[in-house]
Design goal:
Radius of gyration: 16 Å
Largest sheet: none
Shape: elongated
Helix content: 55-70%
Strand content: under 5%
Number of helices: 7
């Protein structure tokens, strides 16, 4: 997964629009769109801002590492995706999933 897909996925995982994120970063929407689509290279300053905004290592933003956290118990992108899906479930469905996981 490239850095452009990563910044898109991070934004979508937090249910933000491109416009909302651009406003948070104090940049123009068209400028942000170009970074997310890969039309323009992400400047280091913006990569740092994205890293701070999403609380992920800059190595993840840059596509160097798949670790989304800097701690020893870092979540992989796949684990992060599972958490995202789990959070959207109803309480009843969450309990079902927990019971199924206990079997394994």
């Amino acid at each position: 997964m490239g850095k452009y897909e990563r910044i898109r996925d991070l934004r979508e995982d937090r249910d933000l629009t491109q416009k909302q994120l651009a406003e948070n970063l104090f940049i123009q929407l068209t400028q942000y769109r170009r970074y997310e689509t890969g039309e323009r290279e992400i400047p280091l300053e913006l990569a740092i801002s994205l890293s701070n905004f999403y609380h992920v290592p800059i190595d993840y933003i840059a596509g160097i590492s798949d670790k989304i956290s800097t701690s020893e118990t870092a979540l992989t992108a796949q684990e992060f995706q599972l958490i995202k899906i789990f959070r959207k479930l109803s309480c009843e469905d969450k309990n079902r999933i927990i019971e199924i996981c206990k079997i394994f």
